[in-house]
Write a structure and sequence with these properties.
single chain, 2,3-Dihydroxybiphenyl 1,2-Dioxygenase, domain 1
Length: about 160
């Protein structure tokens, strides 16, 4: 064993989401097109099709994986009901939504300004994974966020 055993490889994220997909190559293409992801690795499976990809979105890493018969994880249903939502800050939410749509994504919640100071949209990629994309549009204080949240709750209760 080398002296680096137990240390993270350089520039590696501590948490790396792994998205299981029926078509990893298509998911990689979606991430590249929608999020301008960089592809660090693309590994073939036994049949030669893409089985694994390691990508970066900004400075963070994400893995794309094929379904494997020997592993229990499966790709999500393509209906937006995924229990996991990946939250990504992007430079321009509206532009990211446009790119995601051009790459086969679907808007689940249109872009809108949020009380805490972000503009967000919810997207579903062609593999069924759900993403919240956000851009910071306003710096807010804890007090402002609290007051705005109280107004949101009051509006919902009055409906």
């Amino acid at each position: 064993m080398s002296g680096n055993a137990g240390k993270l490889p350089e520039k590696t994220s501590i948490i790396i989401p792994r998205l299981v997909c029926r078509d990893p190559a298509a998911e990689i293409d979606f991430c590249v097109g929608a999020f301008e992801a960089g592809v660090l690795n693309r590994r073939p499976g036994p049949d030669g099709s893409v089985a694994h990809g390691l990508l970066t979105i900004g400075p963070e890493m994400i893995m794309i994986e094929a379904e494997w018969p020997t592993l229990p994880s499966r790709a999500p249903a393509a209906d937006g009901t995924s229990p996991v939502v990946i939250f990504v800050y992007v430079p321009d939410v509206d532009r990211t939504v446009e790119r995601a749509l051009a790459c086969g994504g679907r808007v689940l919640v249109p872009a809108q300004n949020q009380f805490w100071g972000d503009r967000t949209a919810w997207l579903m990629d062609p593999s069924g994974h759900v993403w919240t994309v956000a851009t910071r549009i306003e710096a807010t204080t804890a007090q402002e966020r609290s007051e705005r949240w109280e107004k949101v709750l009051a509006q919902e209760q009055s409906q």
